Amino acid sequence: MQISKIVQSFIKNKTVSFWTPTCILIALTFPVVTGDFVYGLDGSYFWAHNYIFDSGKFHNESSLIYGPLAFLRHPSAVGNNMIYGVLCLTVIKALIAFFTFLVNSKYKNWNLIIVFIVLYFLFTISTTIDYLLLVLVLLLILLHNKSNKHFYLFLVVLIVIEGFYIKNSIGISAVALCGYYFVFVLLYKNKQFKLIGMLAVFAITILIFQGFMLFGNFQGIINMFQNYFYSTSGFSENMPLDVGPNSTLH
User: Fold this and answer.
1) Residue 169 domain flag
2) What is the largest distance, in Å, between two alpha-carbon atoms of the chain?
């Protein structure tokens, strides 16, 4: 009788019952990170990102589409980068798993085994944090839509900022993903001006604080977003307007 009560209490406690399959998922899909180096253009980029982060010499010369945390996409055996990469990926997957179980309980309430299998295939097929971060943003928006707990939105903003410091496409995609909810649902429909203002202040604070930690100055943040703008607008002083057979590079 006592055991039955304990089991029922365990099942009713969503935090405990959701973290249990989450931990099992993390163990089953623990990433295999060899930390080796590959040849080619992409391989040289990956090595450079790892070396720059380990040396701490970001200066203001981040590449056009990557930020100073780009090494998290492909951690290599440089300094402690592999440890940071594995920890980052593990935390992201743990949050996705837990929040997915939570979203399921609030919306569809499908069988946990089905959700577990779907998450298992997600974690084994897509191991790139680009897509995983976007999935996490979507889950947090769904949770806020049901619970109205603003903590989820602050976590969304934090993920967006981290996305920009990893790669421009992650930050841009995350903004596009949550933009409709922030502008049309929170601002236009619900008139939550104070909340939007608090989120904006939080975003600017995190952006500047982390920028100073990584670059050591405000100019590095400006240069990073300038590079992102140039990469998306196709700007290049050396790009010829004529791409025909007689075109020349200056």
Assistant:
1) yes
2) 87
What SS3 class is residue 100? Answer: helix
190 in a structural domain = yes
Report the 10 Å Cβ neighbour count for 17.
16
Domain that holds residue 81: 9-233
- What token pair was written down for 219? 């100019």
Identify whether 124 is part of a domain: yes
Is 238 contained in some domain?
A: no
Which residues, given as ranges, of the chain have pLDDT below 50? 1, 6-11, 236, 238-241, 243-244, 247-250
User: Of 57, 88, 83, 86, whose CA–CA distance to 166 is shortest?
Assistant: 88
| Euclidean distance between CA atoms 197 and 23, whole angstroms | 36
Sign of the torsion angle spanned by Cα atoms 2, 8, 10, 12 = negative
What is the residue-wise DSSP string for 191-240?
Answer: --HHHHHHHHHHHHHHHHHHHHHHHSSHHHHHHHHHHHHHHHHT--TT--
169 contact partners, CB below 8 Å, separation of at least 6: 65, 130
Counting the structural domains of the chain, the total is 1
For residue 230, the model assigns a pLDDT of 82
